[in-house]
Amino acid sequence: MLKHFLSAFPLTAGLLLALVSCNETGSSQAAAGSPEPPFVPAAGTTATGTATNTPGAPTPDSLHLISPGRAGRLRLGMTEKKLLAVVPAGQLRRTTYQDKGLTLPAYEMTDAQQPAAPATILHLIGDSTHGYILRRIRIYDPQYRTAEGIGVGSPFGAARQNLGLTKVRPTPAGFAAVSGQVQMAWVIDPNSLPTKHPEEMNSADIPPAARITGVLLYR
């Protein structure tokens, strides 16, 4: 009987060793192999949903932060009364603009920190009976930036990559790339555009290095 046990022992030991070896090999392959494809976040965000800054781009302060529908303390849809309450009178100059044959009120807003910087244009809509609200914001001051660092002076390619692109079209402010995702438009430097009629151009015609000369916020 002892002889029978000893003769069977090598076989049993070998079987155990083979099982252990297979288990370790499977674990190693699971650790070293390629996992399922990782979550791919939306353009301009990380997997946690936070904005990713464009390398080398300035980071704006709260008074110059652009986000959908907002530019610093300004918010699209705010009343003229609220606008006049948050922006000092010395920074505003009342003017007008034309829209579909109508003359509507607007303001040119200078910057408190850099008065010599290009003015921000604020378009209102409404009437004298019911009052006016802020309809559009045109930004030409390079201090204003999105959380990703996109603003006047940025390359068009960075805006397209981080904030999306819906279409390109002529606007009263110039030829612009429009992002419906964030309700912003990027006015492109005409000197960097091909010699095509604006109506014939598409997004592929705009060089990624083309510079942004204005940012438009709209509703």
Outline the structure in words.
This protein is 21% helix and 29% strand. It contains 3 helices and 12 strands. It has helices at 2-32, 80-86, 156-163; strands spanning 65-67, 70-71, 74-75, 92-99, 102-109, 120-127, 131-139, 145-146, 167-171, 174-179, 184-188, 212-217. Strands 4-5-6-7-12-11-10-9 form an 8-stranded antiparallel beta sheet, with helices on one face.
Number of strands: 12
- Portion of residues within helices: 10-25%
Please give the radius of gyration in angstroms: 30 Å
**If strands are numbered along the chain, what order do they take across the biggest sheet?**
4-5-6-7-12-11-10-9
Shape: globular
C-alpha end-to-end distance: 92 Å
Instruction: Describe the sheet with the most strands.
Output: 8 strands, antiparallel
Structure classification: alpha+beta
What share of the residues does DSSP label as strand, in percent?
25-35%
Helix and strand run: HEEEHEEEEEHEEEE
Uncertain spans, ≥5 residues at pLDDT below 50?
A: 1-51
> What integer is the average pLDDT?
81
Helical element count? 3
